[in-house]
Amino acid sequence: MHCLCDKTLKLTYADGEGHCGYQCQSCGAIWLPRKFVQSIKHTYHFSYTDFIANRTPVEREVSQLCPDDGHTLTDYTLFEVNFSECACCGGMWFEKGELHNLLQNYQRRSSNISALDKLDFLNLLNF
User: Fold this and answer.
1) How many C-beta atoms surround the C-beta of residue 19 within 10 A?
2) Which site from 17, 71, 110, 122 is most exposed, i.e. has the minimal number of CB atoms within 10 Å?
């Protein structure tokens, strides 16, 4: 896959805002396949269904093509964040900082392990 800004630059698998995706090392944009967008629910109180239902289409003068399958991307906005989606594969393109801005609108799930979970883990290890 190649960057939408410069077709000569390959996207590399990277961690973007705590989520895996394919990032351009030059411009910082990130491509998230659909299953990666759906996995945001594991880190944030995020509903993919609500996300899709609440976004607003935006018209763009120049269309861009999906870096994965070459189909035309559709532009959207949600919470004043702009992103593009491929209607075919469901992947999403976020310019640098846009994914971070989007995630600021969702509450992060607690990553703390409860005391009971720790005890269960210790029991598993036969302590």
Assistant:
1) 18
2) 110
Q: Provide the 10 A C-beta neighbour count for residue 20.
A: 14
Paired tokens of 76: 């959207």
Instruction: Give the integer Cα–Cα distance in Å for 60 and 110.
Output: 38
What Rg do the C-alpha atoms of the chain give, in angstroms? 18
Q: Token match 């109180």: residue?
A: 45
Identity (one letter) of the amino acid at 25?
Q
For tokens 């991307």, name the residue. 73
Residues in Cβ contact with 91 at an 8 Å cutoff, skipping those fewer than 6 apart: 31, 32, 33, 34, 37, 66, 67, 68, 85
pLDDT for 27-44, tens place per residue?
Answer: 999 999 999 999 999 999
Confidence of residue 118 (pLDDT cuts 50, 70, 90): very low
